[in-house]
Amino acid sequence: MIPILDSKRQYATIGAEVEKAVCDVLRSGSYILGPNTKAFEQEMADFIGCKYTVGLNSGTDALHLALRALNIGAGDEVITVAFTFVATTEAIGIVGAKPVFVDIDPDTFNIDASKIEAAITPRTKAIIPVHLYGQPCDMDVIMDVAKRHNLHVIEDCCQAIGAKYKGQMVGTFGDFGCLSFYPTKNLGGMGDGGLIMTNSEALRDRVVALRNHGGAIRYHHDEIGVNSRLDEIQSAILRVKLKHIDEWNAARRARAEKYNELFENCPDVQTPVELPNTYCVYHQYTVKIPNRDEVHKMLQERGIGAMLYYPIPLHLQKVHEYLGVGKGSLPHTEKDTEMVISLPMFPELTEEEQVTVAETLIDCIEKSKSAAAV
Ligand SMILES: *Cc1c(COP(=O)(O)O)cnc(C)c1O
Fold first, then answer.
1. Which contacts qualify for 139-142: CB closer than 8 Å, 24 or more apart?
2. Nearest alpha carbon, ligand 1 atom 10
3. What is the pLDDT of residues 64-92, one digit of tens each?
4. Would you say the pTM of this structure is higher than 0.90?
């Protein structure tokens, strides 16, 4: 069995340090908004190269509170993609705004930046580019459109911590960058967690208030906020893990390169295309293949933990039925949803395992083709 992700292998390398950090918190008596969260926020700002970060409960809350801080709500439209995790559009819905979907570029699976302009209306307030699978979006084009139309940009970096576009970290281009520390992310906690990055002091202050019941001073409440604080235990764990993120991302990239090599002579396996001048961090290694559903089933039977991210595009989900964006509206999104499959990818994955994954995938595709020919 080769899993898509094996968190236990990572724990084996850092477990002792994590356990000490957690025990220190347990003994300290300070569990919420204490010294670890404060230090982690500073260490994250230093790592990302932004002025401020604010630790939160989840990546979903990072997106939600970023929208709130920009005063985006009922009657407003936010441009994003349907080829992402539901949390991206859920955050838009939570504030009462409406998602407007733009199709993806089938090479990168990210928003087709050249199609954004056509989706802008007088109600458009923001763009949420999603750096899916750890691949940066085309930020030059996105920022140019945003500037010309006076739109906010909130980058969904939940799958892309440490990814760079032309040498600059994703999350530092727009008004906000949003991160998730869900355990399976490249930098994962041992529970839920999230964070916003920003260079604006005013926006930082607004999120600091919103995460803690709408007030910067205790028991002084200026607006309706939420309870969304990153806790001390998660912060302490994340501080230990942050020291390794560069090395882990580099290991993911090396494994992506190895897969590319293994599939080099297989026209049936379309390997990921990186935009030039980007540093992709391969949260997922996702390929496009024929007979995807059948091959996926065969892989599972043969002990390969491949996954489909995501099996149904967001415009065709029941939750978005009210938008009236029917089948056929987003051709690349819909086609790629039926072709993508994500293969085992984590820093501790061995070369031997990668060879097994590649050989098994190629064999399953061949078998699915001969079955189809009968
Ligand atoms: C994980 C993820 C989120 C949400 O993060 P949570 O911490 O699980 O709330 C949002 N967007 C994308 C693209 C994600 O992958």
1. 139/165, 139/166, 139/168, 139/170, 139/173, 140/165, 140/166, 141/113, 141/114, 141/116, 142/111, 142/113, 142/116, 142/173
2. 87
3. 999 999 999 999 999 999 999 999 999 99
4. yes
